[in-house]
Amino acid sequence: MSSSFYVNLGSGRDIAFHLKAYFDENAVVCSTQINSSWGSEELSLPGKLPFNRGQKFSVWIMCEGHCFRVSVDGQHLCEYFHRLQNLPAINSLEVAGDIQLTHLQS
Q1: What global pTM score does this model have?
Q2: CATH class of the region 4-97
Q3: Angle (nearest 5°) at CA 26 between 8 and 1
Q4: PANTHER family under this entry (predicted)?
Q5: Which of 15, 52, 59, 72 is surrounded by the fewest CB atoms within 10 Å?
């Protein structure tokens, strides 16, 4: 089983933005879940995964008019274009997996 963590930005029962990092595969996957159905995944395979096991890192998710922009330690990781259009309805954050959350800022 691979080591991974994910971040979900929720809107009611839907997940407007799902970011999942797989340490073993050096992959980051983004997707959306609407009406209990996952959309197609967007896979980012950078030259080197910006996360390192056992080391601190900062993830910034900026919600802009057309997309979510994700940065890790100040370096651009990816853009994910909105699939759920009612952005003001995003009202929850879930962080889980092989990660220890030490600070949250909104």
Answers
A1: 0.91
A2: mainly beta
A3: 75
A4: GALECTIN (PTHR11346), GALECTIN-9C (PTHR11346:SF80)
A5: 52
Under DSSP, the state recorded for 74 is T
Element (H, E) at 30: strand 27-34
Rounded-to-integer distance, Cα 82 and Cα 94, Å = 18
Phi, psi of 61, rounded to the nearest 5 degrees: -115, 115
- 62-102 pLDDT, tens digit each: 999 999 999 999 999 999 999 998 999 999 999 999 888 89
Strands 37-38 and 14-22: unpaired
> Which residue matches tokens 């959306």?
32
